[in-house]
């Protein structure tokens, strides 16, 4: 099993001086943890998902440096090469490492897979991005139809972005 605390330390050190990126990865991690547990992932898949959540945007700095863009396609291209040595440092086994790198390399390609861990990573990233980017309700409704597959992810999306706002 991957030591998530150690991996998080390494990711935070990599993103030193960029609290926005660290806050983002921590929020995506929290949603992945909660959704994965609620959806009943086995322990190994859950651990792999949590590691992927911590590292999903690790390629942003390289994408900006090499391509002058943090666009999703460049994150997918640059992320695995940055993530691999971090996974090695925490002793990730080859199968977990391969899966995590695949998840990083596809986390903006919504049609890449229907695997539950992949869908949970997409949903979690969307839940955080919807807030950080102030997406309109219509974008959230579209995502509910096109992106979200899990019961828990849909519940969070509905309650966070599509339910009537709290009225004191």
Report the average pLDDT across residues: 96
Structural class: mainly alpha
CATH class, named: Mainly Alpha
Write down how many β-strands occur, each being a DSSP E stretch of 2 or more residues. 0
- The overall number of domains is 1
In percent terms, what proportion of residues is strand?
Answer: under 5%
Order of helices and strands: HHHHHHHHH
**How far do the termini sit from each other?**
45 Å
- Any idea what the shape is? globular
- CATH domain fold name: Hypothetical protein af1432
The helix content is over 70%
CATH level-4 homologous superfamily: Hypothetical protein af1432
| Main sheet summary | none
CATH architecture: Orthogonal Bundle
Low-confidence stretches: none
DSSP helical segment count: 9
CA radius of gyration is 15 Å
Describe the structure.
By secondary structure, the chain is mainly α. It has one domain (about 5-160): Hypothetical protein af1432 (Orthogonal Bundle). It is about 75% helix and about 0% strand. It is built from nine helices and no strands. α3 (about 45-55) crosses α6.
